[in-house]
Amino acid sequence: MASIKLTINGKSIETHSGQTVLEVAQTAGIYIPTLCYHHALPPEGACRMCLVEIERQRSLQPACTFPATDGLVIHTHSPEVEATRKFILEMLISDHPLDCMTCDAAGDCRLQDLAYEYGVKGGRYQDGFKHSYEVNDPNPFIQVDRNKCILCHLCVRACDHVNGVEAISVFYRGFNAHIGFGADGSLQDSPCEFCGSCVAVCPTAALSPKLASGKGRSWQVEKVDTVCSYCGVGCKLTLNVRDDHIIKVESTWDGPANHGWTCVKGRFGFDYVHHPDRLKKPQVRKYLLDGKKKPKSRNGKLWQWVETDWETAINITAEKLRTTRDKFGPDSIGVLTSAKCTNEENYLMNKLARQALGTNNIDHCARL
């Protein structure tokens, strides 16, 4: 790409073509506020918070969509720029619930941060109409509060460009414009797959996880990086932990396998961790632990499951496999592997079947 030179706030910057003004500024460590921008999604210029003054341009330009070209002279915090950004925030907050004290997104809300930065309290335009949408979407995973939506279109772009489902759209225009799902119905009745990508990019609490509602805010939780346990893809996740309990799961943008995205299980299927029915130790039939023969009736105490340690459970399993092979031959045993395992785990199962047990009766659930 061709090399270009431009000036931002009096600082000469040399970079390459093909970037936007915002990208160049971020690379150079120059702060430009945004609401509708996300590095993993195509820019749209919906919020206008990133407006900058570019010499020889008749009006302020959105930095997230304006291409960086050679010779540009840009001012990111001129008096006109700052006044315009404050006006935009005042208009947004004039139709936004001022319930930050009880909002789950407090401390992790870009709109709140920018209102604090620009000293906007929400009292300037109180006489106009305000939206009053019902908060009653019946789906089990995502809380939908259109009253807190700022129409940044991030959820629409995430659903379209990342997941490819196109379950979210903006309906109507002007004051009546609002996000909707499917044919402007509920999330549950739309093509939504509940991957949670929309939740991950929402800058307010318009879309938030229901399972985390009221359980803790950003400064009350400990962030713990981990790998999703559901399959072998290896998606990197960040757990929000409070009082030794997982209250929310976030996707991690530097994850090498998922690059910030995840499926419905990875983001919302964590309640099994604290479920009272979860098995925490291996279990075997009592008669196996006592070294007795298999009872004829399944109703007796010898047939019950009892907890034991891993070494004992593995030794019993190995002995039963060995006895069956020696008595009936290796082809009496079949091994079924899983698509939920890693390639390495499936390879080890292949070695166990062919080399340890001596059978070629091994298959994969993806063929069934």
Q: How is this structure best summarized?
A:
This protein is α+β, with helices and mostly antiparallel strands. Among the domains are: 3-77, Ubiquitin-like (UB roll); 221-278, N-terminal domain of TfIIb (Single Sheet), CATH 2.20.25.90; 283-367, no CATH class. The protein has 9 helices and 16 strands.
What value does the Rg take, in angstroms?
28 Å
The average pLDDT score comes to 92
Identify the overall geometry.
elongated
Oligomer: single chain
What sequence of helices (H) and strands (E) makes up the elements?
EEHEEEHHEHEEHEEEEHEHEHEHE
- The secondary-structure class comes to alpha+beta
**Which ranges are low-confidence, i.e. pLDDT below 50, for 5 or more consecutive residues?**
none
Lateral arrangement of strands in the main beta sheet: 2-1-5-3-4
Q: Please outline the major beta sheet.
A: 5 strands, mixed
**What helical percentage do the residues reach?**
10-25%
**Strand tally:** 16
Report the span from N to C terminus.
49 Å
Task: Give the strand content.
Answer: 15-25%
Alpha plus pi helix count: 9
